[in-house]
Amino acid sequence: MLNKSWFMLIVGFALGALVVWWPSGLGVHTFMVVEDTSSKNYEDTLQSIINVTLEKGWKVPTVHRLDKTMKKFGHEVLPTAVVELCHPTHAAKILKEDDARMVSSFMPCRVAIYEKRDGTVVVSRMNSSLMSSIFPDLISKVMADATGEVEGILEAAQASQTPVKPKATASSAGESHG
Q1: What domains appear along the chain, each with residue ranges and CATH number?
Q2: What is the three-class DSSP state of 25?
Q3: For residue 108, cis peptide bond before it (omega within 30 degrees of 0)
Q4: What is the pLDDT of residues 21-36, one digit of tens each?
């Protein structure tokens, strides 16, 4: 029979191996990023998200057209945009507090829309729900509220009818190529 020390050493080694293997083997990145497939084409998905964001009282400070930026630098990539979504009331709650401002690097909320080689359009964003759970009360509450609203925006954008008529073009929403 194994004595207790050897047993604990083996259990410790096994648990250590699991901790090291699990993040890379099971893809922790899949917990940190949420992705949905859009039933719309790239441009309609992008415009639907912008339109619904504005309809819901949020702001779209900038739309980063990363494919256009890369083209300026001599690289051809498939359509990719990052839409910034801002709710000034939520943002102010964080920015008014010294201890909460540490999460300002996550602001504003960002949603990526990109097209894969097979034509599939994906809507991607940080798993803010998971992230909110690790922060203190104020940050956690504001992030949870914003996450719920952003998920509602994305659901409504997916459900909206195509063709999409721009309420705000990417450029009037603050388009950027950076």
Answers
A1: 30-176 (3.30.310.70)
A2: helix
A3: yes
A4: 555 555 555 678 889 9
